């Protein structure tokens, strides 16, 4: 079984495109997602209020619409709705807008749904597409991307999930043509030059806007360079772990000094 | 300069304890934190509304109280309040309650403040303490932990940040005595056995609670085993990166098959 979710809500054309693209691969496909937009939800989990699940039918897709976050949706799929069935993959997206750099790793609802699946023992793939997000695109805007989502999922089902990876994060450029390539790249740290804008309200009190301009120094060989500069497709494996071997060793050395001081 | 923040708000006794513990180490200490509780904020960043900064004085601590998240606070410290000064470390905590396992990596506001600092080029240390969080503890509840926060920060200032690590996440047990040890450990994946509770409201409609019981199979050598089972202090280095070398190689092999199919 494949479970599809997202953070734009089950009515998003990106989810419909992803759903259609993985039909006929020999796996049951179910949709469990937020009943409304949950972008930048990160990995929020709803513990303080109960959740409801509504059964909805949209463009021929029967979906479970959850009154919560993408992570809540994964949780309900895994421990309630399909707990007796084997969920082979959680597929998240296709997100309206790219999810690039480590910042997306920590803040994106799309990526978090795949990470939440991985924390609960299921591999996940997040799909996102660079686009003008000022208005909702038609489902056809994802036609080219959908050929790739299908090919990637098909190959993962055939070969198994890449060793050492818990999640794949796939980002599409806004136009896919015959010259578009797929690159496997690590995430850049950030893509923005950050700034703070100071203003004064009519009463003379200061307030601040946080902002970021896309950096002019995007490093080659990273996800963001692949998509924004080369206009190619980036595939980034995520391995969930805290610290590298080197970090564990050097921290152990540092802490060795401390017991004598306290 | 050391910048102190947290996710329980600038009025938290845990923040006061951390602030006092790092006085007299030869560095200026400034407090910039949320003006109210922001637990489980994760790395939320406020882009859609402006922020205000209020100057407050609490128990002798002059603090900048921000109408936003821990990450917003770090952002304002870095790019507005102290942009001309060198911030050597961002210290986050001491959080009322532990932040253990990879789940805390993705959801904790305390840890996220340190990660946000690291994304912006400043090393961070997150401090959290296992405790009964049903009522606010007095600042004295952190006295023993504070000796360790001071020793750790002092040693990092003296030796430099451990190589290969971007952030340290420190967790204290609820009681620290003469037999308490510090262990450097990686994060466990999770500490809970998850479940979903189904109930019916007075109108007969179903609703669901997400829940988790602390697992009986906590693995030795992990952060959660160190704190919950051994009652020791865990120090976990975090290295921010997306995928391991192995994951990058195996994903490249997988993707190699795809270009021919699309």
Tags for this model:
homodimer, 262 residues, alpha/beta, Stationary-phase Survival Protein Sure Homolog, Chain: A, 9-stranded mixed β-sheet, 27% strand, globular
In short:
Helices cover 29% and strands 27% of the residues of chain A. The first copy, chain A, is built from seven helices and eleven strands.
The CATH superfamily of chain A is identified as Survival protein SurE-like phosphatase/nucleotidase
- Taken as a percent bin, the fraction of beta residues of chain A is 25-35%
Secondary-structure element series of chain A: EHEEEHEHHEHEEEEHEH
The parts of chain A where pLDDT drops under 50 for at least 5 residues are none
DSSP, total strands of chain A: 11
| Rg of chain A (C-alpha, Å) | 20 Å
Question: Could you give the order of strands across the largest sheet of chain A?
Answer: 3-4-2-1-5-6-7-11-8
Q: What is the multimeric organization of the chains shown? A: homodimer
What general form of chain A does the structure show?
globular
Total helical segments of chain A: 7
Helix content bin of chain A: 25-40%
The main sheet of chain A comes to: 9 strands, mixed
Largest interface: A-B, 85 and 85 residues
- Integer average pLDDT of chain A: 93
CATH topology of chain A: Stationary-phase Survival Protein Sure Homolog, Chain: A
Query: Structural class, from secondary structure content of chain A?
Result: alpha/beta
Q: What is the count of structural domains of chain A?
A: 1
Distance between the termini of chain A: 54 Å
